Automatic annotation (TrEMBL):
<feature type="domain" description="Nudix hydrolase">
    <location>
        <begin position="1"/>
        <end position="89"/>
    </location>
</feature>
<feature type="region of interest" description="Disordered">
    <location>
        <begin position="1"/>
        <end position="20"/>
    </location>
</feature>
<dbReference type="Pfam" id="PF00293">
    <property type="entry name" value="NUDIX"/>
</dbReference>
<dbReference type="InterPro" id="IPR000086">
    <property type="entry name" value="NUDIX_hydrolase_dom"/>
</dbReference>
<protein>
    <recommendedName>
        <fullName>Nudix hydrolase domain-containing protein</fullName>
    </recommendedName>
</protein>
<dbReference type="InterPro" id="IPR015797">
    <property type="entry name" value="NUDIX_hydrolase-like_dom_sf"/>
</dbReference>
Length: 89
């Protein structure tokens, strides 16, 4: 999860699908791009709308297992973000 400085608001990796990209492929790509993590297994947990009355798109939430990490290469817009492991209970 990314934490925005001064806010401590966790944000999951993800930014949407590219044209003609399926949600599972987008989840795998975003996990690598935003956290330098590769998963050997990715399972769809649920699809939801953040604010159902106004949302036009669905959010797909996945569980990733068999993780391996690499060195994270940040771009300028991510310079203030901190990556942190968070236990889900």
């Amino acid at each position: 999860m990314d934490l925005l400085p001064g806010y401590e608001v966790p944000m999951r990796p993800g930014d949407g699908c590219e044209p003609d990209e399926d949600p599972l492929a987008a989840a795998r790509r975003e996990l690598v791009e935003e956290a330098s993590i590769r998963a050997s297994e990715v399972e769809l947990l649920t699809m939801m709308r953040q604010m159902p009355a106004s949302a036009r798109t669905r959010e797909h939430l996945y569980l990733a297992r068999g993780l391996s990490t690499g060195e994270h290469q940040r771009d300028a817009s991510e310079a203030d973000m901190e990556l942190r492991w968070v236990a889900l209970k």
